[in-house]
Structures are given as C-alpha cells and as structure tokens.
Structure to design on (290 residues):
C-alpha cells in the first residue's frame, strides 16, 4: 500500500485508519462546530491536545500565529435527520467514550459532495475507526489583557505562563477527491477485495414485493447487497431475496460494475438504500465503457 505518507494506513497511536494530507496542495477544510455538547467537547479536546505538547509555532494560514496539529476521527452518521450522508468529526478513540460522545462537529455538505463517498467507503471497509490529520488555528492573546478583561476574547488555551492563544475552529487536512478515491480503492482491495465502494448512487426498480420483504428484515438506512452476474444480468440480492435487476436496463450506469463483479468470480458486495420508492445502489464508477 506504499508508505503512511502517501497512502491510507493504520495509525497505532490514535487507533485510526489514517488518511494522509495532500502532498500536492494545501487543502484545509473547515468544520461546523455547533451546539452546546459539541462545543464543550471541542474545547476539552483542544485543552487536552495543548497539554500534550502538540503546539507548533507558525500559522496554517495568513494571520494565524500558531497551529495545533491533531488527528480526528471521521464518522458516517446515517442517524442524522438532516442529512443521512453526514460525516461527523470526532476526537480519536484514545480520548475514550463512544464516537458520538467524542463528537466535535460536522463536515460541511459542500465538501461531502466529492469526499463523502470515499470516507463512507473507507469506514465500511476498514473494520476500525477512520480519520485524518487536522489542525486548530491559533492566534496569540495578550495574557495581561486577558486577565484584566480589557479586550474581548473567546476561548483560550495557555501554552506557558506568558503565552496564551485563542482559537475558534478546526480544519481537516485532506487529499483532493481524485486522490482520496484512488487511495480508498487501493486500501479496500487489500482488506475487502469483494467490496465495491459506494461512491456514486443510481436508482433501479424493485422486484415485485421485494421492498416490503426487505423492510421486514432490516430497518437500516444503508444496507449491504450482494451483486451477482447470472445469465448475462447484474442482480442485487439481500441474502436470498432478489431486490432488483440492475443490468441490462437500457442504461449504462452499471456496465462497469458488471465487469467488476465478473472479475471477482461473479459475486461482489455493495451498498444500497431505499430512496423515494426505488432502490439506490452505490458503485465506484458509473461512466460507460468505451
């Protein structure tokens, strides 16, 4: 899989399967930290990391005096009522508690458009928590002004007796989406060679009675399906229940997927969801073969 610097690999210190930052560009994504519990957890996380000695002088962006390098967990949250494809940003497992208890904020929806699929795919394939590098941007606060209350300050951390920093958010250091997709595929092939990662979703019609029978078996928003090539058709099953015929269907969304499944001996695993009366199956590549 290459080195930890240019590929996804387990990180023993944090307990995460770690996505490396971009080597080509500075790609730092903001995180939405909102709500009392998330803000409280975020402040405790920053205080803990500063106390651990992770402070680095020199800002991540112009106007920043220092950064606090950290590692964070990326947690798919299908239980999110606003967006079932949401990805939570949490403190890593070494901080203790569940990933919901360690929740710091959410990735913005605009970034999930390109990065959400690979992140969710990694979470399904890795078998352990997935995360990335990040940093908290810090700006220096005058200790005397802070103690006397002569200036307005938000939350602060103390680096030394005479050195204090204010902070307001966290930024994820991520590779470009094309690089992340390729890294995710390379990693998944080593741990789950049967799995087709859920990057792009396409709709298909249910087999008669299949939707009702599936609802009696599982209430999961996103559920695994077995893709099989039988008699020139690409079929989606849940256990022994035939859910849908994906190909041939007069469209070419699944023809590359059919080739992938054939390359795996005629069977592979993918993910799907019930979406507005249709079954939506997620695949890695929906571009037609040429």
């Amino acid at each position: 899989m290459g080195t930890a610097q240019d590929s996804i690999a387990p990180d023993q210190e944090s307990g995460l399967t770690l996505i490396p930052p971009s080597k080509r560009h500075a790609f730092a994504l903001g995180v939405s930290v909102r709500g009392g519990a998330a803000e409280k957890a975020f402040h405790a996380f920053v205080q803990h990391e500063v106390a651990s000695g992770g402070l680095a002088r020199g800002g991540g962006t112009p106007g920043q005096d220092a950064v606090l390098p950290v590692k964070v967990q990326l947690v798919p949250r299908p239980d999110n009522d606003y967006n079932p494809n949401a990805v939570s940003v949490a403190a890593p497992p070494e901080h203790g508690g569940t990933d919901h208890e360690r929740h710091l904020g959410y990735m913005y929806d605009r970034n999930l458009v390109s990065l959400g699929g690979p992140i969710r795919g990694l979470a399904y394939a890795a078998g352990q928590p997935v995360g990335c590098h990040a940093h908290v941007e810090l700006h220096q606060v005058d200790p005397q002004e802070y103690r006397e209350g002569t200036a307005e300050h938000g939350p602060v951390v103390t680096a030394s007796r005479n050195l204090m920093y204010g902070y307001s958010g966290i930024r994820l250091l991520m590779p470009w989406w094309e690089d992340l997709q390729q890294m995710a595929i390379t990693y998944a092939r080593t741990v789950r060679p049967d799995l087709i990662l859920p990057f792009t979703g396409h709709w298909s019609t249910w087999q008669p009675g299949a939707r009702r029978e599936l609802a009696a078996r599982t209430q999961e928003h996103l559920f695994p399906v077995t893709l099989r090539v039988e008699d020139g058709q690409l079929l989606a099953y849940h256990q022994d229940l035939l859910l849908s015929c994906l190909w041939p269907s007069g469209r070419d969304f699944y023809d590359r997927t059919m080739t992938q499944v054939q390359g795996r001996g005629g069977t592979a695993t993918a993910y799907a969801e019930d979406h507005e009366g249709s079954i939506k199956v997620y695949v890695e590549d929906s571009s037609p073969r040429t």
